[in-house]
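Provenance and format

Records in this collection were gathered into a single text stream. Each protein contributes a sequence line and a token line. The two records reproduced below are adjacent in the stream.
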Amino acid sequence: MSAHHNQGALTADVERRCRRHGLRGGFARWSFFLAEPQYRTLFWWRLASSGRPWSGLCRRLYLRSSRRSGLEINTDSLGGGVIMPHWGRIILNAESIGRDLYVLHNVTIGNDYTTGRPVIGDGVFLGTGCTVLGGIRIGDHVLIGAGSTVLSDIPSCSLVAGNPAKVLRTIEPDHISRMIGY
């Protein structure tokens, strides 16, 4: 990931996190953003992935923060605007994850050791305890219900739930943002 893209993604993370709370001004926004362990971990991961001279130090700080927060990021590309309202075990091991991810605690995104890692689109909501495994594609604006296990491709604008997850219905592209208020 390029340093410029990573800086823009970090700015998008802060913007989205602070928008709902009406925070203005740099110090107040950064203080609010970095107050939670999961956002500190994301911050260090973004800096470690920047390719800048200090990225080695940031990598060590990310690893330390990751152990404390339970957030593990191992993805080639993570779009900006990530929201994690609860901290707890979250594993993001995907080929790529789009912008405006909303992820609750105890979520696992990972490989299945045969088909690879998932590709996640923009504006995806991952409910508590859901699992997304394998070389599958999750479209844009998909809501994955709590406790669901997703093992196959999911088309854009879908509400899915179950184990194994099934598409329950089609949703509007703005359904998730209206539902969560971000």
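Adjacent record:
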Amino acid sequence: MERRIVDFEALRSAELQRLKSARAAETPPFRINKIGHVVLKVADIERSLDFYAGVLGFEVSDVYPDSMVPGRMIFMRFNADHHGVALIGGAGEGPKATEMHHMAFEVSTLDEVFRARDHLERHGARITFQGRRRAGAQIAVEFLDPDGHCLEIYWGLDQVARGAEARPPEDWVETVSLEDAVDHAPPGQDTTLADPGLRRDGN
């Protein structure tokens, strides 16, 4: 099936509705606030550090030597949390495990997504997608780190109150460029750029 097709029949199927209606049997005695951090195994820890610190601007909080974690470990932050991403060296070169699909980082403005695209291209990062996918409605640029991990920088993810329903599929608007994402917004999403000069089509 082509990526840009929204399969309404399958989305309304009993199987998918059953999955969508999954709820905890009882209310847990805690509330998870966010994904706290991700730890990645990398082949060359210094090469990966160059990417995450040098290109993405992460700051190093702490480093463990081989005697504490084989391969060394680097804790990096992008907000006030001590670490959001950590790297552990020693992963083998060659085919990578595919258990993690991608990791995404939120920015505060749509303009920053456009600036991220330009910045990543200047630094030779391989961009694999730009625009808006379907569910969630965020506008994003997706790219690969030196080990082939898929990363995403995004803005505008739908906010859904607890117990409320998410945006219906009829309101999904998939695009395959940042410019098209600005021009074709789903209901309620303001895609006005503070700096229209960031567009590549001159509009």
